[in-house]
Amino acid sequence: MAIDPVCKMEVDEATAAATSEFEGQTYYFCAPGCKKVFDAEPKKYLSAAKTQ
Ligand SMILES: [Zn+2]
Fold this sequence. Notes:
Layout: E1 2-3, E2 10-11, E3 18-22, E4 25-29, H1 32-40, H2 42-46
Antiparallel strand pairs: 1-2, 3-4
The structure holds zinc ion.
Zinc ion (ZN) binds near residues 4, 9, 29, 30 and 31.
């Protein structure tokens, strides 16, 4: 599972509502709205988005 960096929800990579690539890393979102927020200001959310 990945963590939605915006709302911190767990998101299944296979069924994520939206994804975004930033600096070579893929981020997964629970909803298109979260992707939109992330894309507008990705750096604000990156420190919380450490997924292994
Ligand atoms: Zn979300």
